[in-house]
Design brief:
By secondary structure, this protein is α+β, with helices and mostly antiparallel strands. It is built from 11 helices and 26 strands. Strands 5-2-9-6 form a 4-stranded mixed sheet, with no helix packed on it. It has a 4-stranded antiparallel sheet with strand order 13-23-19-21. Strands 14-18-15-22 form a 4-stranded mixed sheet, with no helix packed on it. Strand 16 and strand 17 form a beta hairpin. Helix 4 (158-202) runs antiparallel to helix 10 and helix 7 packs across helix 10. The protein is elongated and about 100 Å long.
Amino acid sequence: MGEELYELPKGWVWAKLEDIVEKIENTNPSINSEQEFIYLDIASIDNSLQKITQPKTYLGKNAPSRARQLVKAGDILFSTVRTYLKNIAVVSNIYHNQIASTGFCIIRPYKEISQTFIFLITQNDNFLEPLNQLQRGSSYPAVRDSDVFAQNIPLPPLLEQHRIVTKIEELFTQLDAGVELLKKVKAKLKRYRQAVLKAAVEGNLTAYWRTAHQGELEPASVLLDRILKQRREKWEAEQLAKMQAQGKTPKDDSWKLKYKEPIAPDTSDLPELPDGWCWASLEELSWDSRYGTSEKCDYNFLGSPVLRIPNIVDGSIVLNNLKYAANNSKLDAIEPLAYNDLLIIRTNGSKELIGRAALVTQTYDKPYFFASYLIRFRLISIDNLPIWINKIWNSFRIRTWIETRAATSAGQHNISQTVLNKLPLEIPPLLEQKKIIEEIERIFSVIDQLEKTINANLKRAERLRQSILKQAFTGQLVPQDPSDEPAEKLLERIQAEKAKQVTTKTKKKTKSQPKSPTQLSLPLD
């Protein structure tokens, strides 16, 4: 483990992982076309629990091409793809003689070795780091099985292996209890966020404030009239600019008749709003919308930056991990992003990401564009309106509305511009919008601080976990017992057993081979 081998306690020995594991049988389930089997692939593993939680079931005739490894109870599934994700698990009894993906290196320790000890070694950063460095490929980084088996591991005497496992499990049980409590608190904070947003969009967050300011607030319906007027003015200015660019001058106002009024939301199934509030569709609140560019992008700084799904995080635009257009000339006909644009994810393999949005809250010093799996809505900029829309976007009602209208095709989930145009949004009076935004930001800032503390403690717990493993595999976690059989003897027995198996297989192969014609006994005349 690691580039340099450190000094081991007396009775321990360094060994290659391949020295202490058995070979795995390959199989082809498609031969038995109607026989059902359980398939273990990388997606089957919960890497936070390091357990198999979502296995799949297939008939032999529908077997994936990677379903080729016959596994037994006690085998360790070690994902060779993105090893840093730690998709590692032990095959339990219910998956004995089932089939695993070739995306796993199957580690089957000899019976003289503690399987749990080896499983814990594979979780140690000292084991994983060298493999992380060996990964090949950019889009699908992976190591080979031979890379995994070539890793050096510290091997204590068998009895000490068991003592180490017992001590680690004792410490990890205490650590896991603390981690579980932190995760429960984090989940409660997430639910509290939703409760705050629910109170905000239903008017309960400012109920007392609204009563105290009765008669002072301009109804949202009046605000909507101003929004719709500004929306039309934006369209007319844009059309005039296009005509002037073409050298045309309109003779009269008949061209204005081409303006298409936005569709008002269907409120038949929507909850009742507080007095002075109104419903408005996303189309009514924006004056332009369009899909992003399909221009090829990469990490080379050749063209303009193009925002993608990873750049939309918690309602904000994050300008790291940027890609750039390979050919800027293809972006000439597209307007770059502008202040108060709302970017929405329209297509992804994960339904949870569909409809996630972020508001552009700054003016960029150069043109920024966006990819084709995003939609841009150019919001009407009246006071706090764009901020209000962005703040309430992740409320449960809006998320549910989007998710129930997302289409699914070929494993991809999609929400169209036409559908999003109809999205109904709660609009309070402008002054109340401002008050609600202040309250949301005040409460969320407290939640943010609590989450930062929880995340810091979760990271601390993981560091402590690695510290325990480091102590264990350097001989510092439990005392050594001089009466234990040295690991060197254990390794010699395993090597002898391996040699014996090779000899036995060679003899069986020799006996099964048919004799050549020169070897046959022919009858004499």
